[in-house]
Amino acid sequence: MSTITRGPEAEEIAGPVQRRGDVVFAGLAKGAGILIMVALAGVGLFLLVEGAPAITASGDQAYGNDSIVLFVWPLLFGTLLAAVIALLLAVPLSLGVALVISHYAPRRISKTLGYVIDLLAAIPSVVYGLWGAFVLAPAILPSYQWLADNLGWLPFFEGPATTGRTILTASIVLAIMILPIVTAISREVFAQTPRMHEEAALALGATRWEMIRMTVFPYSRSGVISGIMLGLGRALGETMAVAMVLSVGIGVVTVNLVSPENPSTIAANIALNFGNASGTKINVLVFSGLVLFLISFAVNFFGRWIAARGQVKG
């Protein structure tokens, strides 16, 4: 009785054999992805339905504004202003720390520094808010006064500087909060630069900085940009830290960073007013949350798109 054996060619024609565990894991992963998409769509639908009545709100229903646009615009401006300032402060420091950890510091120091940076992400937002309101704000007030006295001709420092609890202080707190995110992602993509590229640049006579500029930065550009976008998303949605630093925001549009008249952010305004809101005011706050939801979604989608585009080119 003869037996028929299947060679490699027959297995290739029949296709790869899938194990039961792989099939189960693939199904669970796909189900989790679909569940996340359904939850995201549910959140968006809820915000849209609950925020729709606010479109016609005005007067006291819109917190003293003639339309919902006049209510949301100062909050949107404050949200974007605080997030952009936080990025300007955090990104250079984050990239510098990531380079020190991945290419300059000895292994023992780099590991310790990496642990310290990662621990910043574990600190609750409330702790950052308390530190910003009661430690940073009083300590930085003399600097604000100096800026108002000597650089008051600039619109950013017109003053008067009477309190340290300003939009600039809130931005500094946000910068510290997004520092671990941008640093961790940048550190990982810097470390993934092909070693042969770095050694080739050094062999051609490049200094360490020239090697980093010619090999590390081009290779990790998409990853760094995606990390920055994720940090921006965190800064846009931060609530408690900004609410505790600013306490009460004013519906103004100004670039004066050291004045007590500060634009609040959408998230902080919702946290401060939602407990006392009723009727159409709740719909107005939910509508502002919808605006923040769309902006955060767009920022994170843009960051993912840049990362995917860089992987395809690579």
Automatic annotation (TrEMBL):
The keyword Glycoprotein does not apply. Residues 76-303 form the ABC transmembrane type-1 domain. Its main location: membrane. The keyword Glycoprotein does not apply. Keywords: Cell membrane, Membrane, Phosphate transport, Transmembrane, Transmembrane helix, Transport. CDD domains: TM_PBP2. The chain crosses the membrane at residues 23-48, 68-101, 113-146, 166-186, 239-258, 282-303. It is found in: Cell membrane. It is a multi-pass membrane protein. Belongs to the binding-protein-dependent transport system permease family. CysTW subfamily. Part of the binding-protein-dependent transport system for phosphate; probably responsible for the translocation of the substrate across the membrane. This is Phosphate transport system permease protein. The lineage of its organism: Bacteria, Bacillati, Actinomycetota, Actinomycetes, Propionibacteriales.
